[in-house]
Amino acid sequence: MFIHFGLYTDPGGIWNGRKIDRSYSEWLQASEMVPREEYRKLAGAFNPSNFRADDWIREAKNAGMRYFLITAKHHDGFCLWPTRVSDYNVMDATPFKRDILGELAEACRSHGVKLGFYYSHWMDWDGSGGDVFYPDDVPTKDLSGSEFVHPSQDEFERYWQEKCLPQIRELMENYQPDFLWFDSWGDHTSDYVTPKRQDELIDLIRACDDSCLVNSRINFAEPSERCDYLSMMDNSFPDKSFNKPWETSGTLNHSWAYHRLDYDWKSTEQLLKYLVGNASYGGNYQLNVGPMPDGRFQKAATRRLREIGCWMDVNGESVYGTSASPLGAMPWGRITVKNDADSITYYLHLWDVTPDSEIVVDGLTEGVESAVVLESGQPVTTSPGDHGLRVRVPEEVSGLSLPVVRVVVGQR
Ligand code: FHN
Predict the structure, then answer these.
(1) What 3-state class would DSSP assign to 378?
(2) At what angle do helices 100-111 and 53-62 cross, to 10 degrees?
(3) C-alpha of residue 279 to centroid of ligand 1, in Å
(4) Which atom of ligand 1 is nearest the CA belonging to 231?
(5) Does ligand 1 come within 6 angstroms of the Cβ of 234?
(6) Reduced to 3 states, what is the DSSP secondary structure of residue 29?
(7) 3-class DSSP state of 350
(8) How far is CA 46 from CA 58, 260, 271, in A?
């Protein structure tokens, strides 16, 4: 589970009575070019009185999720923990005055869920020297002298040494995260997040805890070889495998943070297909929720999480601990694989099949030991075909949502 939660949550995609549609709701400050001092006033309204760390982590765990990531600091520079580096934080600047990260770290530990922090290391819009952004339709010449101007290298270096690195150290020492998730895209990151700075950041993390993982969006275009895993671009689902562990972060609707007028909810079926599609190429799926200003999840989010959880409860073995299928994508669905000493298990995810018809698992030629519908244990008839295994899809799967057939074959 990925969470976007911060000062942008309260406006929820509406500014001066107008819907923010130039960008995501968490981009309010940049997309509406809200002057810094005015944006900072949002801290006075940040009071998620129904926030309960345990509720979030239980919801994540019930959905089958095994790692949890939250925006410790997003691009606006506001921090969800009582950092000593800046008073622009939940304890010093808001009426809420609770260490949100500390409470979540404790809940993750008690539920056995891995903990990660999103930290916007490249962008920081609070005036401390991080990079800024302005909408494409604003001419650069109109910006001279304003706060929406890219920092000089000296300014960025000061930000890097005096805010970014010290805050990463704090996060590491205070909460012992299992992973850190840095954010960047496009070609411009390299102007600021140079190879030297990537090394500095990774050295610091490794010195605090050499088992803490670092993602590749530390510099999306030119990631250090020392990154542990690859993060795809937002909602980007590749049709290939990679030589490192990888994941896609995706949204439930459009914005990452709460947006009151974002009705673009993906169906549970679509979300499960993204999950399984990535698994069939060896990847993970990190699904985002944007909690409401009072700290609870929207009903539309909760329903989808619980439906995913039900499906995972029944079919989880076809996802957890599986690897990419050497057979690739099929016209009728996707395949995940588990290799054991004397057998291989193929999980056939039936996305687009007609019950009581036949599908072919192209390229599967080994002798079948067993084939059953995962949910019910119903035996499935198979026979060798010219190009691969022929599988009779039982009539009874018509009532199941995204059924899975488990086929075990002997090792040759
Ligand atoms: O600008 C951010 C965006 O707000 C969000 O945090 C996503 C998550 O992957 N990353 C950036 C855009 O790619």
Answers:
(1) coil
(2) 40
(3) 22
(4) 9
(5) yes
(6) helix
(7) strand
(8) 23, 16, 30
Contacts of 351 (CB under 8 A, 6+ apart): 273, 332, 333, 334, 402
39: three-class secondary structure by DSSP: helix
**pLDDT digits over 248-269, tens only?**
999 999 999 999 999 999 999 9
Q: Does the CB atom of residue 249 touch ligand 1 within 6 A?
A: yes
Instruction: Indicate if ligand 1 lies below 6 Å from the C-beta of 26.
Output: yes
Side chain identity at 122, as an amino acid letter? W
Q: What is the pLDDT of residue 412?
A: 58
> For residue 378, which amino acid is it?
Q
pLDDT of residue 138: 83
Residue 150 CB-density burial (10 A; 0-12 exposed, 13-18 middle, 19+ buried) = middle
- Residue written as token pair 């009072």: 294
Q: Give the angle 23-24-30 at the CA atoms, nearest 5°.
A: 60
Q: What angle do CA 327, 332, 335 make, to 5 degrees?
A: 35
Helices (H) and strands (E) in the chain, counts: 11, 18
CA distances to 32, 266, 293 from 50, rounded to whole Å, are 29, 26, 9
| Sign of torsion over alpha carbons 202, 150, 14, 94 | positive
Residue 266 — φ and ψ, nearest 5°? -80, 150
pTM of the model: 0.97
**For 235-250, b where at least 16 C-beta lie within 10 A, e where not — what string?**
eeeeeebeeeebbbbb
For 390, the token pair is: 């022929």
Tokens 């800046």 identify what position? 86
Nearest atom within ligand 1 for CA of residue 26 = 4
Q: Whose C-alpha lies nearest to ligand 1, atom 11?
A: 183
DSSP 3-state of 285: strand
Task: List residues bridging with 227 in a β-sheet.
Answer: none
Q: At what angle do helices 299-315 and 268-280 cross, to 10 degrees?
A: 50
Dump pLDDT digits (tens) for 327-381: 999 999 999 999 999 999 999 999 999 999 999 999 999 999 999 999 999 999 9
C-alpha to C-alpha distance for 314 and 321, rounded to whole angstroms: 15
